[in-house]
Each structure stands twice: as structure tokens, then as C-alpha cells.
Amino acid sequence: MKPAPLVEGRRGPAQIWNSAPQLAQIPAINPTTLVPPGTRVVVIAPHPGDEVLACGGLLQLLSTLDYSLQLISVTDGSASHPGSNVWPVKRLSVVRPQESVEALRRLGVPLHSLKWIRGGFTDNALPAREQQLSQFIARYLQPGDVVFTTWRSDGNDDHDAVGRAAAKACLLVGARLHELPIWAWHWPAREAINIPWRQARKIRLDTWSVARKLHAAHAYASQLAGDPEIGLPPMMAQVLLERMREPYEIVFL
After folding, report:
1. Alpha-carbon separation of residue 189 from 12, 16, 180, 192, 215 (angstroms)
2. How many CB atoms lie within 10 A of CB 141?
3. Cβ partners under 8 Å of residue 122, min gap 6
4. Distance between CA atoms of 102 and 121, rounded to whole angstroms?
5. Which of 2, 71, 129, 150 is 20 to 30 A from residue 167's alpha carbon, by CA?
6. What is the greatest pairwise CA distance in the chain?
7. Taxonomically, which superkingdom (predicted)?
8. Residue 6 confidence (pLDDT)
9. Domains of the chain, first to last
């Protein structure tokens, strides 16, 4: 996750997530239609926590249905607090993977059977290594995999680069790619025209699934705390957590 100019609270200026009328028109899709039974699921997260923000509810549903799951964490997220003495890179490189373990535990994802790949790429620098990243992802994909990652037009450089790299890798290997918006939902409402609504499908979540996803997001203590000494706000803004209360997740086919 990266800093973004997010407006705090539902009553602030309209953003896509809380004002776009198209959201109500998105058709629902069953997870077993999205991911046929017996298919392996691969989730590619640019930074620790992106898998929860983007598809924490879907991860819960798929794990309860006993799908084979693989998570690729491209970076360790250690550059999330630039210039901070409270959250220096060395500390974050240890803390953020630990936060991911706890978040997945809170989601109910069985860690003993989860294949977890850590890429070790440097965050804030993925566009410059996009070709290498695509080759790296392709090594861990198999024909027929269903892959979920950040939308290649999400508006965050790392998210966009991972989306593009994953698309190339899936094309090379013969896997199916679905993209997930994160920061795009917090664009100003006037930008809703740039969302590919016809490709969007809604995965409905029950109250319990939403609660577990929020509980998992709160495992990222480093992202809920900024550094007031240098004027750094929390990376995980309150409005982002508010958006996560919606009873659905959206995927672009």
C-alpha cells in the first residue's frame, strides 16, 4: 500500500466508491463461476496487505471451498514510511511480513497449505523492473491458473506495474487474469467514466466475511500508524477502511 490523497470519512467530497451510480448495476458472480472447481488460485500482491484490501473476502470464500491457493508478495513493503525514524526500512522489512501472517490467520486462510512466494523486489521501484517482474511471476504460474492482482490502471505506479507484468506472464503461460482495483475507488467521482464497468463483476460478502476482512486489515499496525514527527499520515487511511465495509468486492474480468 502507498500513500494517497484520500478524503477521510463518508461525508467528504464524493469518491467513486461511495457515489458512482454504476456500482449498483454491476452483476454479481458466484466464486465458483469465477474460479472453476479444481482450479489453482494465484493472488499477486504488490505490497503486503494489498491482498486483503483487494480481495480479502474472496480469499475467505475460496479457502472455505478448499481451492489450492498461492500468494505472491512482490515486495516486503519496507519503503512505506520514507524518512521515518519510528518505522525505518530495517524494522518494516521484518514487521510487515509478520503482519501479513497475522492478517491471513484472521481471514482463516490455512497457512499450512498456502504456497507463499516472497519476491523481494523493492517497492516504489517496480515500473523500472517490469520485464524482470513479469519473468519472475511466470515462473510460478501454471497453465489454467486463475490469477488475481491489482488493476493495471489503478493509479499507483507499483500496482499498475504488477498488473501489466502479470498480464504478460499469464499470456505467456496460459493462465487467466482477473484484475482488482484498490486506489481507483478513491478517485474523485468525476473520474468514474474511466472505470471499465462492463468488465466489472460483484462478489457478494456476508456480514461475517466483511468483519473478518476488516479484522485482517487491522493486523497491519504499521500502516494504521503514521509518523507525526515528520508529518506522515497513516498509509491505511480511515476512508479506505470505510470502503472495506461494503458487502461486496469487485473484480474486472
Report:
1. 12, 5, 18, 6, 28
2. 22
3. 75, 79
4. 22
5. 2
6. 51
7. Bacteria
8. 55
9. 16-29+37-252 (3.40.50.10320)
